[in-house]
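Schema walk-through. Below, the input block comes first and the output block second. Nothing else is stored per chain. Lengths vary across the set, and this one has 62 residues.
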Amino acid sequence: MTKPTEEAPESGATAPASTTGKTDMATAARKSAGKAVWMGTAVGIGSAAIVAALLYANKKRG
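--- output ---
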């Protein structure tokens, strides 16, 4: 099935710019960056706790 020629866009016509796609991508990027910061913070705190526990255990034995 083909479109009638009167409904076809002009040969030089461009699609209208969609701003909703750009906004959604920016929001998604901000959300994922925030999650990465929290994940990095949790890993850092966990690592510091492990190091502190190991240092404490070594001092207590020696």
